[in-house]
């Protein structure tokens, strides 16, 4: 399909992070872009401000007149429910229908493409690499899985010499991509609805990596979190590989490290997001940057200017009395890394965590692991499971998860999203963490307002 011959785009699920970056791209390209989502969020409101029309009612009457035209491409997310009225109608009468991942493939198939995959860390790695490329003056378009604080968007639009994308393993989406450079930041089981066994996930990653193409045709893998692969370029934060980082030091709230390329050492670089897990992500971005011959000074400057990503260790309140951090962590490995990093940055502080489990299937599969990771908190408020695309599962709920958490009953409890702020006000803590990938981010503004009002 030739995207140049498409004049209209209709997005089903336009408020998703991956969908909205595509919508922004085509809007920037001068196409007519509309879409549907079931909930108005800060992201959909921003899209509307940018001139993209969005409807929030699942009825056929809300569809634009041109949606059945041969000149229209209907883009859908795999998360859309089969009983969705617009989706039923468009499946029957729509002329051109593609999944989000297929459209991303069409955009990048004849371009130089860098794809960042991995269970954890792909958004941080991709956003930082996009920032480095942009700061170095490289012609780049980057589709991001989060909102960059530097660009206030999930897309960087600065030319078309290089396309940078996230390789999403969910629904095997990344198997549509054919990148020139591929990176896998971590290999950990997740999306158990798609990959019930880790071996199935490994086969999918190998299939993805086998799709790389010339020029470049290079694979970057994290030595600590991957599998042996012939001709891969490895990076590490433990071993001396082709690329590696070491000498991590903390000076106050600032973290520094040394980065080693095959030919030189870049000393005392700033780590823009704390944590050993983020050192791995930064090492990945720097390895690809050096391979692309971006010099040390440009990289160093980009690191100093990097402001982070929304919902990735986002500090919303910091005073001598209280600290508030929000994070997207929704997997036991990510929660462990988050809590460990907070304790390193702020030792001997009492941590109150509010966690919203994401997906029934994930909660069921990782129930024991979630319980162990959440036990590292001092106080826990557990919210109801955020279903996203799933229907409830019998016996899978937050009450069962709470029972498995080995913590004093006075320090753990269940709450609804609407009542959690009142419960927070009753607790004695030094640090608040909001954790999860659902709609827990709607708590950010209310918590911040309360903290500023109460503590100044």
Overview of this protein structure:
By secondary structure, the protein is an alpha/beta fold. The chain has three domains: 3-99, Rossmann fold; 109-305, UDP-N-acetylmuramoyl-L-alanine:D-glutamate ligase (3-Layer(aba) Sandwich), CATH 3.40.1190.10; 314-455, Mur ligase, C-terminal domain (Protein-Tyrosine Phosphatase, Chain A, Alpha-Beta Complex), CATH 3.90.190. Helix content is 31%, strand content 25%. It is built from 14 helices and 21 strands. The strands form three sheets. A ten-stranded mixed β-sheet has the order 8-7-9-6-10-11-12-13-14-15, with helices on both faces. Strands 16-17-21-18-19-20 form a six-stranded mixed β-sheet, with helices on both faces. It has a five-stranded parallel β-sheet with strand order 3-2-1-4-5, with helices on both faces. Helix 6 (198-209) links the parallel strand 10 and strand 11. The longest helix has 16 residues, at 276-291. The protein is globular. The N and C termini lie far apart (56 Å). The mean pLDDT is 96.
In whole angstroms, the N-to-C terminal distance is 56 Å
Structural classification: alpha/beta
The CATH class of the largest domain turns out to be Alpha Beta
How many strands in all?
A: 21
The helical percent reads: 25-40%
Shape: globular
Mean pLDDT: 96
Strand content: 25-35%
Low-confidence stretches: none
Largest sheet: 10 strands, mixed
CATH architecture designation of the largest domain: 3-Layer(aba) Sandwich
Order of neighbouring strands in the sheet with most strands: 8-7-9-6-10-11-12-13-14-15
